[in-house]
Design a protein that fits this description.
339 residues; single chain; globular; alpha/beta; 6-stranded parallel sheet
Length: 339
């Protein structure tokens, strides 16, 4: 059964794929309205991961209060349940102080969990996860995906054979409960009451930044990844690796960009490299990072298009910021009229 949905005050949600311009749009809203920003980003929660996450700069953070940024060490997990708990409390607190809660980010699971509640699936079990990792080392993740297809064909159909993190979680749920992950999701959708859904959907106004031309977003992604490399992204990942307690299977190190950089640095070390990537390795990292980021953006856009209540703003239009501000004003005016 889903967890009890929190009774949330009204809030504005600003979502969009990576590199769509969410930070600039959020700051424009903050300049026009007395608000506080709640980050909806599973990577921004981690300290020491600044460049590769495109974390807002110190100057941007100083412009308006931000929440749920730099709240975890990369060794620690931060779940959707953690987010729902933290964001719900923050929304209530910000609204109680007479300010506008503004939720901004691209982690669509977090948005969904906050609006729809969470299903009571089994918690992570270190022993089961370790057993699955051992099996994957012997068989490979495509074989694990094939196993998932036998026990949970619905979930397997939506996962790529190399999506190790989600395959592992789906198999973990099955082994712990004897039930497929898809069954939990189906029950969640079937048992949500219309009143609860209406309350949560009604609590938020969802503004979605989506490109009219996908090529525009692809160019932005490439430009941003190049900027990250120029700012020292490889050194940032090298510093994280040098800690000695992190590994590529942690949720933090699975973040887009970090996973690819770790992979290239691993290959470099295996070849006896001196720690400085050569031109071919840098080119490989750039290609891997851009491809992975494009794939992430595609998934984000697919999720947004399944949200019928959203108001779409073409983020590649010259008047995108004006449109975001107009829709924000309209949402706030509608609420005042309904109050």
């Amino acid at each position: 059964m889903p967890t009890t949905l929190p009774a949330l005050p009204p809030y504005i949600a600003l979502a969009g794929p990576t590199a769509a311009g969410k930070t600039a749009a959020a700051l424009a809203i903050a300049e026009a309205h007395d608000c506080e920003i709640i980050s909806v980003d599973s990577a921004l929660v981690y300290r020491g991961m600044d460049i590769g996450t495109a974390k807002p700069s110190a100057a941007e953070l100083a412009c308006v209060p931000h929440h749920l940024i730099d709240i975890r060490d990369p060794l620690q997990a931060y779940s959707a349940a953690d987010f729902v708990r933290d964001a719900s409390a923050l929304i209530a607190d910000i609204a109680a102080r007479g300010k506008l809660p503004l939720l901004v980010g691209g982690t669509m699971l977090y948005f969904k969990a906050l609006a729809d509640g969470l299903d009571a699936m089994p918690a992570a079990d270190p022993a089961v996860r370790a057993a699955l990792e051992d099996e994957a080392l012997q068989k490979g993740w495509p074989a694990m995906h094939a196993e998932l297809a036998r026990v949970d064909p619905v979930t397997a159909a939506r996962l790529a054979p190399g999506d190790s993190q989600r395959i592992q979680r789906a198999l973990e749920v099955f082994r712990l409960s004897g039930q497929p992950l898809s069954a939990f999701h189906a029950r969640q959708n079937a048992t949500k009451t219309g009143a609860a859904t209406a309350h949560q959907t009604g609590a938020r106004s969802l503004i979605s930044l989506e490109p009219a031309e996908r090529g525009w977003l692809h160019d932005r992604i490439a430009q941003r990844f190049d900027a990250m490399l120029a700012q020292g992204f490889v050194d940032e990942v090298r510093t994280l690796r040098a800690r000695g307690d992190l590994h590529p299977d942690l949720p933090s190190m699975r973040c887009v960009g970090y996973r690819q950089a770790w992979q290239v640095l691993d290959a470099h070390a295996a070849r006896g490299g001196d720690g400085v990537l050569n031109a071919a390795e840098q080119s490989s990292l750039r290609a891997l990072g851009i491809i992975a980021t494009r794939q992430l953006a595609k998934r984000q856009i697919t999720w947004l298009r399944a949200s019928p209540e959203r108001v779409v703003v073409a983020c590649d239009a010259p008047d995108a910021l004006h449109a975001v501000l107009r829709h924000t004003r309209d949402a706030l005016r509608t609420r005042r009229g309904a109050a």
